[in-house]
Amino acid sequence: MRKCDVAIIGLGLMGSAALYELARRGCDVLGFDPLQLGEARGSSHGSCRIFRRFNFESTAYTALSDRAFAGWQRLQEETGQTVLLPSPILEAGPPGCELVAQSRAAALAANSPLTGPRNGREANAAYPAFALPDDWDVVVHDSGGILLAEAAIRALRAKAQARIIQAAARIEPVPAGIRIVTASEEIMAAQVIVSAGPWITNLVPGLTPHLTVTRQPVGWFRPARPESVRHGALPIFIIEAARGMIYGFPDFEGRGVKAAQHDHGPVVGADSWDPPASDAELELASTTLAELIPGAAGPLTERDICLYTNTARADVRVDAGNEFIIDRLPQDRRVIVASPCSGHGAKFATAIGAMLADMVGDPNLTALDPFRLDRFSGFA
Length: 380
Fold this sequence. Notes:
Elements: E1 2-9, H1 13-24, E2 29-32, E3 48-51, H2 61-79, E4 84-86, E5 89-93, H3 98-109, H4 120-126, E6 137-141, E7 145-148, H5 149-157, E8 164-165, E9 170-174, E10 177-181, E11 186-194, H6 200-203, E12 211-221, E13 236-241, E14 244-248, E15 257-261, E16 267-268, H7 283-292, E17 300-311, E18 325-329, E19 332-339, H8 349-361
Parallel strand pairs: 1-2, 1-11, 2-8, 5-13, 11-19
Antiparallel strand pairs: 3-7, 4-7, 5-6, 9-10, 10-11, 12-15, 12-16, 12-17, 13-14, 14-15, 18-19
């Protein structure tokens, strides 16, 4: 039977980043994924994700963002490929908006001065596509970017193509190692990283009570004022509107403005990529653009579906849920679980890939506290 030191099941951004990092460290690693790159499935599919240095979810993410940014820069230098386009990020909401307050707090905690617009009136003057209420709270960060997701995966895999097996795989722990079983072969691995996105519970059933998958419609809109929404004129935006939160990108591809609701959609199965996003599902994004970013508003030209894989609230070390899982299985420490799929994990991929490689190399290395499995009583 063929053997390897590490097998990675799932080669989206997280799995590909781990493959890249382990390969560059000289590890005998193999990666498994049945999906063709460019397929409209998987947590990392599509052209772009948001990179944020400062995260309203937690000030603790800033250090992870900084490690990831260094990783994206190194990847660009090593491959000569652009994977991160600089772009400011504008976050806005009604007076007293918690989103803006927490994002400001994250920047201030890192001693990062904030010099951009602080209210709707100033934002409208700086970015003509917007029509925010004058008294709205606004924060603009210059340290953001557009992560080119598919290009990043290609760059991460560039020097490891011979290590990739395009096949679905299941894992069977045995005393000699972790048996990796595909339709055509079996391979024995000493350790395995499971980074299978919404399909992760098929491989690690014990995670089922702690994870839900939600359907997230995404649309591209033909802008009313194209010159006001091009890359360089319109920032990435995250808006806490009355009916929900939306996010979006400037028109950096010539496809229009990409926008979507960030609030969780309906709970679905891991294979629920169809039907395409409907007009009704994209109505909130459409009406929010028309009301608050009229330069970006217009008819839908393309649509897509993303899936978020969300954690439930922890019950041992209490958290609010929607946090990552990056940890060893306590019942079999040869298995490392990587599930940072809650809608904002992509930007951290290079940092998480390095973290996973560190865990492979040091069996005594413990996961970061917020990401540990023992916060759930089922794994405590």
